[in-house]
């Protein structure tokens, strides 16, 4: 049975959606905020996501962007925003479909079936190990092997960069793609700035930043994340 995560801050709408989707043969989990949605998705990876954009703590676009750093799960946006700019922003962030409110429940279930046929949720790791450090990509925390052990604080941009590399272990990602995916297609970040961010990540995460084992440079081409032979990914 496919699991659908429904993210909606209006309790009555959320209950109605959950009942309708569950009656159509899906397992349902729910969330009322962006933070809760990301936490639930990390603990119980969904096969499909139904997402309202108007959440109380963060815009739904933030949820799409964060999910896309570690999963290809199909996302259907439900929103009262009817402007073409909102639709373009959601689709550019990684949404698969966009339904404006009010909508028919039959249409929603049909859209769920359609995107479910087109895509299968990818199994991307939500945690990494780098030496003695454990990195949780969903909670965005870095912890050491025991109480008081070495940890690290990453900036939002450093997290975005790390998540993009970790989502594709072993794959060479070009400098242009990293800049476009992390900073946006219209950003003018140059190679020197990107190298600076990678260097800071190494200082915070690599056991020996001068001899990186995980965040590898391919001169003149880009970067790749290389899981260690003994560390692996716990999930």
CATH hierarchy: architecture of the largest domain: 3-Layer(aba) Sandwich
Helical fraction:
25-40%
Strand order of the largest sheet: 2-1-3-4-5
The helix/strand order is EHEHEHEHEHEEEHEHHEE
- Give the name of the CATH superfamily of the largest domain: Response regulator
Could you report the average pLDDT, rounded to the nearest whole number? Answer: 85
Given as residue ranges, the uncertain stretches (5+ residues, pLDDT < 50) are 230-235
CATH class of the largest domain: Alpha Beta
Instruction: Calculate the terminal CA-CA distance, rounded to whole Å.
Output: 22 Å
Strand-residue proportion: 15-25%
Note down, in words, how this protein is organized.
The chain has 2 domains: 3-118, Response regulator (Rossmann fold), CATH 3.40.50; 127-225, Orthogonal Bundle (Arc Repressor Mutant, subunit A). Strands 2-1-3-4-5 form a 5-stranded parallel β-sheet, sandwiched between helices. Strands 6-7-8 form a 3-stranded antiparallel β-sheet, with no helix packed on it. Strands 9-11-10 form a 3-stranded antiparallel β-sheet. Helix 6 crosses helix 8. It contains 8 helices and 11 strands. With 235 residues, it is α/β, with parallel strands linked by helices. A hairpin with a 2-residue loop joins strand 6 (127-130) and strand 7.
Concise account of the structure shown:
By secondary structure, the protein is α/β, with parallel strands linked by helices.
Topology, pairings included?
Elements: E1 3-7, H1 11-23, E2 27-31, H2 34-43, E3 48-52, H3 60-67, E4 75-79, H4 84-93, E5 97-100, H5 105-118, E6 127-130, E7 133-136, E8 141-143, H6 156-167, E9 173-174, H7 175-183, H8 191-205, E10 215-218, E11 222-225
Parallel strand pairs: 1-2, 1-3, 3-4, 4-5
Antiparallel strand pairs: 6-7, 7-8, 9-11, 10-11
Helix pairs in contact: 2-3, 6-7, 6-8
């Amino acid at each position: 049975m496919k699991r659908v995560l429904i993210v909606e801050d209006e309790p009555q709408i959320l209950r109605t959606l959950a009942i309708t989707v569950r009656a159509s043969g899906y397992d349902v989990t729910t969330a009322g905020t962006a933070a809760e949605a990301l936490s639930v998705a990390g603990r119980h990876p969904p096969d499909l996501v139904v997402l309202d954009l108007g959440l109380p703590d963060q815009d739904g676009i933030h949820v799409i962007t964060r999910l896309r750093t570690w999963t290809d799960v199909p996302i259907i946006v439900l929103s009262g925003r009817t402007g073409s700019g909102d639709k373009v922003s959601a689709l550019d962030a990684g949404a698969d479909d966009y339904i404006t409110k009010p909508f028919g429940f039959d249409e929603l279930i049909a859209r769920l079936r359609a995107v479910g046929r087109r895509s299968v949720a990818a199994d991307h790791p939500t945690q990494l190990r780098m030496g003695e450090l454990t990195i949780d990509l969903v909670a965005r925390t870095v912890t050491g092997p025991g109480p008081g052990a070495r940890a690290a604080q990453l900036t939002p941009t450093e997290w975005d960069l790390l998540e993009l590399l970790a989502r594709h272990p072993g794959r060479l990602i070009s400098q242009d793609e990293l800049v476009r995916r992390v900073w946006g297609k219209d950003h003018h970040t140059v190679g020197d700035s990107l190298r600076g961010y990678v260097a800071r990540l190494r200082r915070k995460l690599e056991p020996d930043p001068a001899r990186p084992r995980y965040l590898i440079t391919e001169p003149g081409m880009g970067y790749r994340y290389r899981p260690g032979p003994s560390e692996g990914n716990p999930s």
